[in-house]
Amino acid sequence: MQINIIHYIINLVLFFFITLITYSQNDVTKEDFFLLGKKDLKEILKSGLLPEAYLKFKQMQNDAKKEGVEIEIVSGYRSYQKQKNIWNNKYNKNFKEGFLGIKNINRIIQYSTLPGTSRHHWGTDIDIIDKRFTQKGDLLIEKNYAENGIYSELFSWMKKNSKKYGFYLVYDDSPKRKGFRFEPWHYSYKPLSFLFLKRFIKDNLIFNITRDTSLLGREFIDNSFLENYLKENLLDINKNLK
Length: 242
Ligand SMILES: [Zn+2]
Hints:
The chain contains 8 helices and 4 strands, in the order ααβααβααββαα. The chain has helices at about 1-35, 50-65, 80-95, 100-110, 140-145, 150-160, 190-200, 225-235, and strands at about 70-75, 125-130, 165-170, 185-190. About 45% of the residues lie in helices and about 5% in strands. The longest helix is centred in the N-terminal third of the chain and has 34 residues, at about 1-35. Zinc ion binds near residues 75, 120, 127 and 186.
């Protein structure tokens, strides 16, 4: 009788721990799935942002408007699949132009991320313009945001005010920075993205990236490339975001 009770208690304790372990493992997987842009966020997002980031964005947008600047998001959340399409299209284009192997990859990563590593996967990052000035063609070019450019007022307003709402420029113009080039249009909602970046590193997600067999050029991307990409492209960003 006593042995049965002990047996029962041992089973109960075991069951508790197994449930705990299974639950926390599932949780990690879900979170990682999200960080890689593979979770469907359609129901949650507003203008491509997570609710908390959206709320702060709206406040920022309203306050900017009072001073004549009309902030508009041209790109918010982007899924893994969409980023992979961008990557594969660029790879094919470069290939046709004669950029082979690692030269092709290095050309893509001047401005575009490896799918799974885009901050746009997180619902915290946005590319913005000033709605007062739209024109045909690519708006996200550096000279538009420079002095005398159509978005120079937007750029100065953001420089002065965006931090108050939690938004920071990611790829700033610090001369020592490596990785992605200066992107005066790309901002990140720090209170959330700061945590997501930490998690991305902690879970070593960078080494997951080349498992996708439909990713073009994956045969040229080895672990030392990925380590360097992590260091320069994902971590060499505005120092306020790390
Ligand atoms: Zn961007």
